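Recall the central idea of this unit: under ordinary conditions, the amino acid sequence of a chain determines the structure it adopts. In this exercise we apply that idea directly, starting from the sequence alone.
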Amino acid sequence: MTEGGCQEVWIPFPRSRVFDALADVQARVQWWGPDGFTSTSLECDPQPGGIWRVVLHGPDGTDYPNVYRFLELHRPEKMVIEHPDPAHWFELCIRCDEAPGGTLLSWRQRFNSEEHFAAIREFVAAANEQVLARLEAVVASGG
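Accordingly, the structure predicted from this sequence is:
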């Protein structure tokens, strides 16, 4: 497995509020996906071993069905999910740590191979920055 790097963002809200936006599916669909994408949740069982089925709707109208598996859920500090698609497997660990005046959120991905990560590195870095900005906006709106 290959570490895909870690991105961090400071969010000026308590970690319980940030974590709620991660764990609550109604909030999650507001920020999940890069800019221009929307999401529709079809099924969500947010507990270890539970599945989240979601469709990402691209700005060009293309639908991208996705399945994720919850591996860990430790409120309000950590969520680990797996995207078990053999063509694009990854594990995502999201941590919420208390920080002065808010929350330090870290977003760390692992991929199944260095070759796969090398092929998508630039896309993933840009998409993750967009996702984190969208998450921060949802937290700020109270969504």
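Residues 108 and 138 are 20 Å apart (CA to CA).
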